[in-house]
Amino acid sequence: MVTEGSAGMENQALGLAERLPLPVVVKRAALAPPWRWLAPRSVGNALHHLADGSDQIAAPWPRVVIGCGRQSIPIVMAIKRASGGRTLAVQCQHPRTNPAKFDLIVPPEHDSLTGANVFPILGSPNRITPEKLLKARNQFTRLFEPLRMPRIGVLIGGKSRAFAFGEEDIAALSSALKTLTKSSSLMVLTSRRTGDANVARIKEALRDCDAYFWDDSGENPYLGVLAWSDAFLVTADSVNMACEAAATGKPIHIFPLRGGASKFTMFHHALEQRGISRTFEGQIEQWDYVPLDETGRAAKRIKTLLDQRQPASDMR
């Protein structure tokens, strides 16, 4: 699998790769200027234009390469060409280039991409599985079992091109969280997009409240929060966090933020239609649904395509 190395992109590609009956090799690579500015278009052999610090990419070529992110696209295409077309080229997300270049594209439904080799899924691929959740539940028992039930997993994103996440949003979120601690305990995780100042404001609002707030020290308890939550409150800006929470089968309450875009509206509407999420209206509710496993569904499609190809002896 090939990505530029960002966690959000890498987790999507890994989510698919880990579901295949093949060894997983992670390649973190990007193009050097000026070629990186052309991506997803490519001029020449992208493997000859890798930026300093990129992982080496060379034969033997893999049976399948999974790319995620704009920078990965010319590299995935170069691997496919170098293998003589024998490598199955899979791209996560909308590639913003001719879909016919790939053997399979796995975009979110809300990108509205169609084609014979397009396999849309609800949201994005992820690495969450029942096995990992069970392991995390056991691993973080001492940390989270003592918390008062119901335990609410709070997953907070931040400012993006679509959402402002400004003063008004932080004030409303902080107030809502403080109110929730009257009837439940909170397990609060923020992201890099949340911003230090906003994190400090939320922490201050929850001071002396029944809330666990990870301080970035020690092992990341993210999987533990997913495993121990009885329900979730997720800010509306993150497709990835909502999809990962949906893999647990626990109720998801979407906290609205100022701003938005049509693709987010479509995504949240699809979650609601499947009985996975509801807009947060001040209280936590309980309901049931089948855990979302779009990653597994896409991985089955990749397996089918691989089974249709005879593996070459010089491919790993």
Q: What layout of secondary structure does this protein have?
A:
Blueprint: E1 2-3, H1 7-17, E2 27-28, H2 35-38, E3 64-68, H3 72-82, E4 88-92, E5 104-106, H4 130-139, H5 141-144, E6 151-155, H6 167-180, E7 185-189, H7 196-205, E8 211-213, H8 222-228, E9 231-235, H9 239-246, E10 252-255, H10 262-273, E11 277-279, H11 294-307
Parallel strand pairs: 1-2, 3-4, 4-5, 6-7, 6-9, 7-8, 9-10, 10-11
Provide a short characterization of the protein structure:
It is built from eleven helices and eleven strands.
Description:
The chain is built from eleven helices and eleven strands. It is of the alpha/beta class and 316 residues long. Helix 4 crosses helix 8 and helix 6 runs parallel beside helix 7. The protein is elongated and about 60 Å long.
